[in-house]
Amino acid sequence: MQKVGDVELHALSDGFFGLDGGAMFGIVPRTAWEKKLPADDCHRVRLSLNPLLIRAAGKNILVDGGIGERPDPKFRTNYAIARRRTLPDCLKAMGLGPEDIDIVFPSHLHFDHAGWLTSRQPGGGHAPTFPKATVVVQEGTWEEALEENPRTRGSFIETDFLPLEGRVKIVRGAEEILPGVWVEGTSGHVKHHQIVRIRSKGRQAVYFGDLLPTTAHLRPAWVMGYDVYPKEVAALKVRLVKQAVDEEWLVCLDHDPKSAMVRFVPDGKDVKAVEVEGVAA
Ligand SMILES: [Zn+2]
Description:
Layout: E1 2-4, E2 7-11, E3 16-20, H1 21-25, H2 30-33, E4 44-48, E5 52-56, E6 59-63, H3 73-78, H4 87-93, E7 103-105, E8 118-120, E9 126-128, E10 134-138, H5 141-146, E11 168-171, E12 175-178, E13 181-185, E14 194-200, E15 203-207, H6 230-246, E16 250-252, E17 259-267, E18 270-278
Parallel strand pairs: 6-7, 7-10, 10-11, 15-16
Antiparallel strand pairs: 1-2, 2-5, 3-4, 5-6, 8-9, 12-13, 13-14, 14-15, 16-17, 17-18
This protein binds zinc ion (ZN).
């Protein structure tokens, strides 16, 4: 657990999965990215699933919902899902049940971020996993997830988010949801992606979501093939990584296979990541 002013940040885990290394690094040649994240026999790189629990103002806020139960064996094999414990297991280990989550911030609704936002019901169908939680998303998130776009269609699974309708709070851009706890729209990975900022007592932490998923994505041009607007992602990284170094932010990474929380520090002309807390798997 890390404290940023009055706010507690707990790294959680939903285990590991694998995505195609080429797709994770866009135009970067394999000879370069492979040195940072080696590929398996199916050309996949191993990634973690690192949701975050924020405790602030007496509330429990879950940031991202992991990859979910996904009982389909083909899905589990294709995405190399491997875990000792799930996101609900992690919450339980902290003494938290589903009804204890007050707010959920999905960075976006891709299936590896919205997995546990709903759960299969014994009688069939899906219902919200966290029955009392308000789900905070950027305006346009729903529409984008339902868009008939052949290039992005495969990243969304409707049962992850359609059952949440009626409990969603829509925000535009940056908004303070609880004292010191902000969401902020960062178009690029998807049009309505959001990051989470904690500002408390002069300290700052940022959960980057898929804007900067692993330490291997630190360089601005190392952006994902999945990104809808790669140019915007690269420009945002130039600005935010510099600020993270200058202002010594605690940086939370959603998919880094080793580190859940890091600080970015100067390394000659470059920037490198120094681990603050390892993945909680
Ligand atoms: Zn994504």
